[in-house]
Write a structure and sequence with these properties.
The protein is mainly β. It is built from 1 helix and 16 strands.
Length: 217
């Protein structure tokens, strides 16, 4: 294609949506006020916007997005003003959910990309996974109304309970809560005769669980 065709094919979409996918890996947020996002995820912006780092695990928002791999805090930022900001995270696919006022979802802290200011959040840690993740497994409970953007390595799979999942591949869940167990019948490495592995068991018949075809850690 020539230059004009290239520009046209890859130009931002004209949309009234506040959270808009420009492609599978890039989120376009129309900011009119403020939005929260994972620090370091901004790749471009236009308009009159300011970016303010909020905190880390030792800061004022209680360890939001605590990095499981190292136990260190991953900072987030507030984007304020009027304009468009484009987010991406290591070529992970972006999934946009619109939460109603009675909708909620719990997301692995590593997989939260951005959410609207009206969305309420609460941070918790599954300490029983401390043996598998340094500092435990930090997740973020998000409650609508508002848009939430998640990221997944590849296309997600949405499962209904009862189901057991690998914590490293578990992205989010809603309407159900996990019990963490050690399955000693599963070997940790190919070739081992015995071993153990953590798994998240989601019981009941309600809600859903989101997994990805990739182990985060």
């Amino acid at each position: 294609m020539n230059v004009e065709q290239f520009k046209s094919a890859h130009a931002p979409a004209d949309s009234d949506e506040s959270f808009q996918l420009e492609n599978s890996y890039t989120l376009d947020v129309a900011v009119d006020g403020s939005v929260m996002a994972k620090a370091g995820s901004m790749i471009a912006y236009s308009g009159d916007l300011s970016f303010t780092g909020r905190a880390s695990a030792e800061g004022g928002i209680k360890g939001f997005l605590k990095e499981a791999a190292t136990g260190e805090g991953t900072p987030v930022m507030t984007v304020e003003g009027s304009g468009h900001v484009y987010f991406a995270d290591h070529q992970k696919k972006v999934q946009v959910l619109e939460l109603a006022s009675d909708d909620s979802i719990t997301v692995n802290g590593e997989d939260v990309l951005a959410f609207e200011d009206d969305v309420s959040y609460e941070i918790s840690t599954i300490d029983s996974l401390a043996g598998s993740f340094a500092g435990g497994f930090t997740n973020v409970f998000l409650e609508g109304p508002g848009y939430v953007a998640l990221t997944t390595h590849g296309d997600p799979l949405v499962l209904e309970p009862p189901v057991a999942t690998d914590p490293s591949a578990t992205v989010a869940w809603s309407g159900t809560s996990p019990n963490v167990q050690v399955n000693r019948s599963l070997s940790d490495m190919i070739g081992q005769e015995s071993g153990e592995r953590y798994q998240m068991n989601f019981e009941g018949s309600e809600g859903f669980v989101v997994v990805q075809p990739y182990e985060e850690l």
